[in-house]
From TrEMBL:
Keywords: ATP-binding, Leucine-rich repeat, Membrane, Nucleotide-binding, Repeat, Signal, Transmembrane, Transmembrane helix. GO terms for cellular component: membrane. It is a single-pass membrane protein. Gene3D superfamilies: Phosphorylase Kinase, domain 1 (3.30.200.20), Ribonuclease Inhibitor (3.80.10.10). Residues 566-619 form the Protein kinase domain. The chain crosses the membrane at residues 508-532. The keyword Acetylation does not apply. It comes from the Eukaryota. This is Protein kinase domain-containing protein. The keyword Ribonucleoprotein does not apply.
Amino acid sequence: MDMLKGSLFELLGTFALIFLVHAQDQSGFISIDCGISEDSSYTDQVTGIYYTSDATFIDTGISNSISPEFKTNSLPQQLWNVRSFPEGINNCYTLRPARGRGNKYLIRAQFMYGNYDAKNQLPEFDLILGVNMLESVQLDNASSVISKEIIHVLSSDYIYVCLVNTDSGIPFISALELRLLDNSMYETQSGSLVRYARWDFGSPYELIRFKDDNCDRFWFPYNSGEWKMLNTSRTIDTDDDNKLQLTSIVMSTAVKPLNTMEPLKFSWESTDPTSKFYIYLYFAEVEELQLNESREFNIFLNGNLWHGPLTPESFEATAMYRISSSISEKFEFSIYKTNSSTLPPIINALEVYLVKQLLQSQTDQKDVDAIMNIKSLYGVKKNWQGDPCAPENYSWEGLNCSYNDYNPPRIISLNLSSSRLTGNITPYISNLTLLQSLDLSQNGLNGPIPDFLSQLPLLRSLNLTGNKLTGSVPVELIERYKNGSLLLSVKSNPELCWPGSCKKKNKFVVPVVVSVTAAFIFLTTLATFWWIRRGRQEVGKVEEMDAEMDSNKRQFTYSEVLTITNNLEKVVGKGGFGTVYYGHLDGIQVAVKMLSQSSIQGYKQFQAEVNYNKFITEM
């Protein structure tokens, strides 16, 4: 029997431990301390929350520490540092939680100025979530802590939190936190919920959050000199239909009016007459009532019955919520006891959320995935932050997008010219299915031109000039170029050739001819590219596909010819006109022929050869 009892207690202890671990689970948390050094992390000693550096979530900004005078023992560690953004208008954090699109998150940004810049100038700036304006950040003083919070269902796998410079000071941020919520919590007809108030009535604590609240909601104390604070050491039952996951410590305190004949009143103001609010009121009886005692009350909002009569359950949480539109600038709740009640009204907690319609859509998810992969693969150094296309005035450099009302924007043009790209042309580009223009010119891309480029149905312009591409140009691209449906530019890729000709191709050699006479120096550069195909048959070159190619002969200065030949350093032979020198022009081998005064052939014959060959370039 004793063995059975021991096994039972052990089993119950195991279940209790599992429940505790689950309750303190941070798997749905992303906790970022903004401004701490890269690769830094720590566990907060008070909350047990694991914080990491923001360096991997943003490419811009400067790390700073607040002034030592503000680092008090009670100040949370995640407020000791900030990241400020003196450069650029729009600076964005990019987060990709494990559970993305379709999941509900509490997203919170915290701000404490702390005179980090020693200027004693409080900034004002805007906060954008995704592609929509969320709120303006305004601080009362250097020590005030502002937290902006929204409950939002993700429409994308990515979350963008952006700080916008409004010419009222340099934006900064102290901490950024994401908390995964159950989708059944805080259900709405439409829109997201911006926290307007979250009050813990009768609380003696400065702030309640995780671990006491598994969702890490911030519960702020709310008391009045006209109220009496109530509390109980008993655990409040919050499990009955607890979709809101109420916490016992919040529900274990309450307030009631000192004058038992007076109503319990509290209020807040709204500056927008079109605002809609979700209002949650929480009640639980925290006093042991005698048989002859009762508590019953009606709840009024701005003089109109909101709910009632209500009798709080003994040591059991009850939640009431309504959607209320602004009918005036002030929301005033009055809770009156009923005539049959012997005790005054009470209230334990309250939440108020402003309904926020985030109408602007983020960029199409497939386009975002593609461009993010391109950015990562090539290490693009452009200021690519936040959503690629939206807001429209903050779209990424080098991108053009199509916009159709509130539908997701699509990427239609990508310009990565002169971006120091290396490696092959990535197949991620093929996922930009509405691409009309692609410019990858003047980079170090190598390998063949991939066939998937010809499969982009809307592609109208393709510029691959100035790379190190090899092999043959895909036949489909050439056909589209010939029928006028594609503007194609692939010049200055020395190892590129026509289809079917690559195996027969000899190295390109460009003769450059130079003559020197006693009266003046006459330089003529002979630039001839040829293929050997049964005798003297000439093969067309890749450059002939470039519509912008100039048919006029290119001219060079004498100093340029000296550069080409490295000051006439290497002699490769002698001919009828004189000495021939070795050199390089645009990465291509060249021969430079000099007409000497003792040449057995005269200048006229030399000039005739220049004029005879259509590829000769004369200075």
